[in-house]
Specification:
Largest sheet: 7 strands, mixed
CATH architecture of the largest domain: 4-Layer Sandwich
CATH class of the largest domain: Alpha Beta
Bound molecules: MU-OXO-diiron
Number of helices: 13
Strand content: 15-25%
Number of strands: 23
Radius of gyration: 24 Å
Helix content: 25-40%
Strand order of the largest sheet: 1-2-7-8-9-10-11
Shape: elongated
Length: about 400
């Protein structure tokens, strides 16, 4: 299908991408680095009788959305604006579109209705509540809905057009990419999956159980195209469905993630001893100096690393703050980590280990060992790190 002029994209006949590619955005939620920018994918479904806009765009891009919709339909005559999810990057412009399309209804879940009224002041009589039994006939195209709560907010739904077998799952299956490509296979499936995994880690990893439920529903629909609200679309949906099945299903690898920070090389030396021993045993090691590597990479490795080692010195009676952030992130993202270890060094007093223990407290993690040394690690302490490598090897025997 040819590109439609002036920046929109025809997906199938009378279904158009009318979103925005935001190459300049560098941070999401004040937390997540966006090295490739992101896109806010809105879609227009034009039936013979009625027209629906599925999701909108980030605040500041309302005019671009209106321009793009105008290429295929009169924005003032939209019949439905579907709000799959209430986060402002997709929902904030709903109010603007409703102000243009005076007769349009905002279509959303019951919880979405509460959110639309609370966040955006949408009046009750402008909202149509739908669930999985609902069906909206546009004329030759039908909108069906999938309940997908907690992906990643409580109100989330997916929209499905059965005639074209296109699924619009909003954030689910998303990725932060703003480049020119529209489809994963154009961008490169391998590269796409790496970015989708990063996105999964930061957004969906805490919600693995709801994700698994949604994946089963998506498989039952057997879509031909998956069109998320960030990044590329999938015209070979099996690629992203299989990947999500692995990630949400906690299919992990024979791998160790080491997140470390070192001030004068003592902690880093301990990391090197452990890393080299593990590599020698044939175990994949992803070691990140937290001062040089974005926290997103750490989050991504959490998805399929059964073992996490945090290595950091004591600073002013507590853990180095950079490592504290990594530990807090591991807990906040509810990583599927099974085993952990701590390597630490201190001068005149400790404190890092106690604080790391507190930060990781409450997680269902088996702590394999804590090696906290005063000054440089001595021979006995190096032997203990080598023993830790043996222990990790044993724990990873079940993984491939
Ligand atoms: Fe892309 Fe949860 O908003």
């Amino acid at each position: 299908m040819a590109n439609t002029p002036m920046g929109t994209k025809t997906i199938v006949e009378n279904v158009f991408w009318v979103g925005v590619k935001d190459l300049n955005r560098r941070l999401f939620d004040g937390l997540i680095p966006l090295p490739h920018g992101t896109s806010y994918n809105a879609y227009l479904v034009v039936g013979s009788e009625k027209t629906a806009l599925i999701d909108t765009v980030n605040p500041g891009f309302e005019n671009e959305l209106v321009d793009k919709v105008s290429q295929h339909a009169d924005p003032a005559k939209l019949d439905y604006i579907v709000m799959n999810h209430a986060e402002p990057d997709h929902a904030n412009a709903c109010s603007h579109m409703l102000s243009l399309a005076k007769d349009a209804k905002l279509v959303t879940s019951a919880k979405g209705k509460e959110a639309a009224m609370m966040y955006f002041g949408v009046p009750d009589d402008r909202i149509m509540v739908v669930d999985e039994s609902s069906s909206i006939d546009l004329g030759g195209k039908t909108l069906k809905f999938v309940d997908a709560p907690w992906l990643h907010w409580p109100e989330t739904i997916f929209t499905y057009v059965p005639e074209d077998r296109i699924l619009f799952p909003c954030d689910f299956f998303g990725s932060h990419i703003a480049y020119g490509e529209f489809y994963a296979d154009e961008f490169g499936n391998g590269h796409t999956l790496e970015l989708a995994k990063l996105y999964f880690a930061e957004i969906m990893m805490p919600f693995r159980k709801p994700s698994m439920k949604a994946i089963e529903k998506v498989k039952a629909l057997d879509p031909k195209i998956i069109a998320p609200s960030h990044g590329v679309m999938y015209r070979e949906p099996k690629l992203i469905i299989d990947a999500y099945t692995d990630w949400a299903g906690e299919k992990m690898k024979k791998k160790v993630l080491i997140a470390y920070v070192s001030m004068w090389g003592r902690t880093e030396r301990m990391v090197k001893v452990l890393k080299e021993s593990l590599i020698h045993k044939g175990i994949e090691v992803q070691a990140f100096d937290l001062t040089a590597m974005g926290i997103g990479e750490v989050a991504k490795q959490l998805v399929d690393s059964p073992v996490v080692v945090i290595a950091a010195p004591t600073v002013l009676g507590g853990v180095h703050p950079v490592a504290a952030y990594a530990a807090l992130l591991t807990k906040t993202l509810r990583a599927p980590t099974k085993y952990a270890a701590i390597l630490s060094s201190h001068g005149w007093s400790g404190g890092a280990v106690k604080q790391l223990g507190e930060l990781l407290g409450g997680m269902k993690i088996e702590m394999l060992d804590v090696v906290d040394v005063k000054g440089p690690a001595n021979d006995e302490e190096i032997q203990r790190i080598l023993k830790l490598a043996d222990t990790i090897e044993g724990k990873l025997a079940e993984f491939t």
